[in-house]
From TrEMBL:
Source organism: Butyrivibrio fibrisolvens
Recorded family membership: Belongs to the TrpB family.
Enzyme class: lyase
Name assigned to this protein: Tryptophan synthase beta chain
GO molecular function list: L-serine hydro-lyase (adding indole, L-tryptophan-forming) activity; pyridoxal phosphate binding; tryptophan synthase activity
Amino acid sequence: MKTEQDKNIPYKTYLDESELPKSWYNVRADMKNKPAPLLNPATHEVMKAEDLAPVFCDELIKQELDNDTAYFDIPSEILDFYKMYRPSPLIRAYFLEEKLQTPAKIYYKFEGNNTSGSHKLNSAIAQAYYAKKQGLKGVTTETGAGQWGTALSMACSYFDLDCKVYMVKVSYEQKPFRREVMRTYGASVTPSPSMETEIGKKILAAHPGTTGSLGCAISEAVEKATSTPGYRYVLGSVLNQVLLHQSVIGLETKAALDKLGVKADIIIGCAGGGSNLGGLISPFMGEKLRGEADYRIIAVEPASCPSLTRGKYAYDFCDTGMVCPLAKMYTLGHDYIPAPNHAGGLRYHGMSSTLSQLYDDGLMEAVSVPQTKVFEAAEEFARVEGILPAPESSHAIRVAIDEALKCKETGEEKTIVFGLTGTGYFDMVAYEKFHDGLMEDYIPTDAELNESFAKLPKMD
Ligand SMILES: Cc1ncc(COP(=O)(O)O)c(C=O)c1O
């Protein structure tokens, strides 16, 4: 179904190294309704830079709190590192289009082309750089499925920083290979909850035998950072600063599309804490906010952890241990522990405050999809496009295929762009379950969600 214009569009568009974005774009600068500020969990007062300083690196706090500066220069040390694996390719999914027999034009931005296997490295290297610049000894973090921990380990070894990772216990046990990649890059990896922290001991006493959650691991990593001199805590998603670093994805995507003379109609990304989606859409959303162009933007989340589609827009704790600041976001409640789902990176109870505000303002849509449908899409994609996608990324593939099939019905030639955030080589147990027909679709009941909403902090 190639048209005249398609003849000039290659399968892969690689920008030149010299075309790498030199600045990150901060979409908050163009938002009329700014994301709500972080609040102190005890006093409910707005957190200021000095309140956040014991937890986060100074420069990252500035980025976190700055709702007005549109562009932040990317330091040359970070640009040098980016050059190892960026610009990443924008791929025209000609084979998928052919397979679906759709008139839609499908493009994907592939972020799995580095050893950590996902987009997480874009922010990991920035956060490690600022920690080093501040003269810190090391950083702590949590990791669920392991992608963020892997990316941060790589970034810390590059800048010779110590890296302590609290890995959700179930993943620590089920994903020994990810764990070993982190150790190869010099990180220490502790299964969470652990007896290393007071909060870990408390959680283990209350829930003996628990296999942990992202929320628990965050609490442990924050406690470790704040109780160890020369350490700070870093987070791989949710925060404004992370979306800022990930804007490199969207800026490259837009530059490549502009070069090809292509205008996107629909932009799709999976949403865990919101970092890849926030990054991918940022320059497009900027145009939308400034009234220069219009796009349909779709966040895709798992039906088992539907924070945007079924959550409440409210202030909530970012972690289970209730030590982190309160963020206003679409949330399922900090106590909500999603059913085991093979897209570990999408099992977070909340969502970025920036994306939550944009969603609440009707500037983007959200859909949730059950995991067997996600794996069907992943397999279909792998067989024609060659790349073995991560389960998280496959949520975006599912909806891109669904939108392309709608175009087949209507005959519309829409241009669909989606984020392919990573590869799935460490997720073969999930693929095995899918192939053996053992994969289940868990969808929480309203009663379960209501129980969790009842524990949201009371705000006056
Ligand atoms: C491959 C991949 N895609 C997507 C995500 C979701 O995270 P975010 O919503 O921050 O992009 C993750 C998180 O671990 C991931 O590993």
